[in-house]
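Dear all,

This email documents one entry for the complex benchmark we are building for the journal club exercise. For each entry we list the sequence lines for every component of the assembly. Then comes the predicted three-dimensional structure of the complex as a token string, followed by one or two observations. Please use this as the template for your own entries, and keep the labels exactly as they appear.
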Amino acid sequence: MTTTIYDVAAKAGVSPKTVSRVINGSALVKEETRERVLEAIRLLDYHPNAVAKSLKQKVTYNIGYVVPYGSDFVFRDPGQMEQLKGASDVINAADYNLILSVPSTAREALLEVNRLLKHKKVDGLILYAMEGVEPLAREFEEKGLKYVSLGKCYPEQEYNFVEVDSPSGGYLATRFLLNLGHYRIGFICEAPQFLVPAKESMIKGCIRAYEEAKIEFPHDLVLEGDYSVEFGEYAVGRFLQKNPRPTAIFCASDPMAWGVLRGLRKKGLVPGRDIDVLGGDDLPFTKSIEPGLSAVNSKLYELGAQAARMLLDYIRNSREEGEKGIPGRYLQSELVVRETTNGPSGKR
Amino acid sequence: MTTTIYDVAAKAGVSPKTVSRVINGSALVKEETRERVLEAIRLLDYHPNAVAKSLKQKVTYNIGYVVPYGSDFVFRDPGQMEQLKGASDVINAADYNLILSVPSTAREALLEVNRLLKHKKVDGLILYAMEGVEPLAREFEEKGLKYVSLGKCYPEQEYNFVEVDSPSGGYLATRFLLNLGHYRIGFICEAPQFLVPAKESMIKGCIRAYEEAKIEFPHDLVLEGDYSVEFGEYAVGRFLQKNPRPTAIFCASDPMAWGVLRGLRKKGLVPGRDIDVLGGDDLPFTKSIEPGLSAVNSKLYELGAQAARMLLDYIRNSREEGEKGIPGRYLQSELVVRETTNGPSGKR
DNA sequence: TGGTACAATGACATCGATGTTATAATAAAA
DNA sequence: TTTTATTATAACATCGATGTCATTGTACCA
């Protein structure tokens, strides 16, 4: 049936071990033998069986990417895709495979993770941190299973995570808007059910910026959004009822900002002239929107890429037993100014 | 180290084979023994090694999902994500794993596919059909490797594909617009570099609808787009220069239609009043856009799901050698009418 | 010329499960 | 009660690679 290393060995008149040496580029093979073996491999169209190799070497070259119970959420959120893409690129470049798993309930997520990690289908896991992953993360650590999470899984987590520093992004955005002359700013921040409990909301940074500027923070202008375009649109209505109404709106995610743009237009308001708008991701799509949406760049691609790099590092260099993993990292955001932030009306 | 089936056997005082029987739910185990074994499994927190099982059974329970050299394209196109999601849901429900691979060049794609299929890392492959996959598909067939393609890989392909019947979608859309009273319709169809050579363009169906209505087809109003929002916006400018200018625009994809909406607005035109617009995918995002975009529903989720189902079928029921696979299937589109199609101006 | 190093190769065991086949224990049939 | 089925279990081989260790061949040095 399938050709094995034994077939090749027989054809080349050597032992299987020698064929193995040739495949793995060992220097301990005479040039002439090597060529004979390579010829046999070519003739038989032989491909080593990765499963057998895995069994012996206890390495699968598979990385699991698990997003617990977020199926709909995940596939519709372009921010999620950026993270996945970052991870995918790094994993593929390292000749590993990415096993994508998007269970739809917490229970399924648990089963899934077991199937992958404990049954040795993957060498490690990238875990998207959401409400409810804490027990999973704890268990991994207890059992010495390798993972890196996208975001902290619980407040005291010190190892194996990469996280966007949301408060610093909020601070950056707010300071910028305050400097433009805004003081009534509407905030759409992250609804808790979409945030890991451990993650600090951007709003902390926003408040800090107000404090530094010694301006009173407009607590009446804070909404909690679900990352959807729809929510952004809805929020516009809410904000316009306020008195005085905000002169700028800052959203924790780009899709909500897209919704805000749409909502404003529906009300006959011009973003960037009547009301300033600032997004929270700087997704690729945001670059091509009209008018050009200013945004905090949350480095989502980089987030995924770094997580993958950390995990690969961890997998390949973990000699000592009982080491805790790799210290967590925070990514700092940047501000990208485009056309929707020009200062309060009249100033333009 | 890791607990194996031998450890469990020893603890329970039975043979490894009996443990295996318990794990696999064989009826040939006395109730009392079963319980003893289960207890041992629990105590030792034993999890069977999937790799060892794979080696023996020659089944990996992995499905590869390969999108040849389309990294950027893929992750930015929400239509792609719908297909991926459809496949992912089916694959996970069947207790298989999805290995996602998005190589960025044709050469990498080849290596990738070899790594996956020939090295036995997956039981089968879902292959996104694009320019250049034909040789791959041919080789798979020659070697009896299992795959199903999303779209035909070459014109005469009869097996192992699922495809959206684009011409029928084009026909549906065009007939609808003609019935509304349009006769100058602008078409943005698929640029050839993004289409498998084997796939028929929707434009064929559009022309057919014109023929049936005995109206002359406006050949001057056909553009080829790259699926991007930007192109849709650009196309608006092109169309408005035509004389007489079109009263409706039909796009092969939703993102291009989103671009058209934006482009129209920038020119001060109102979609659905001044010019009708029709999208080509009916993506989730399209449901929530403003104004509600009418669209041909291309069943992209279903496309991915069907491909996965076909492949799983093929994998599980392929007893006979040399069978060609599963006959290809075409999915028919539907029309979803929302707010952007009200007939030529004045008629409203 | 014999000894020592090192290069090149192979024999055999091993990874951890399951398939095959033999055998022990029990139940049903004669 | 003996024979025959049937149930329950185990011994051993096997999947296809690689690791360990032994062995052979060759070159270099004393």
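Observations: Residues 2, 4-6, 16-17, 20, 23-24, 48-57 of chain A lie near DNA strand D (CB under 10 Å from a C1'). The first strand of chain A starts at residue 62 and ends at 66.
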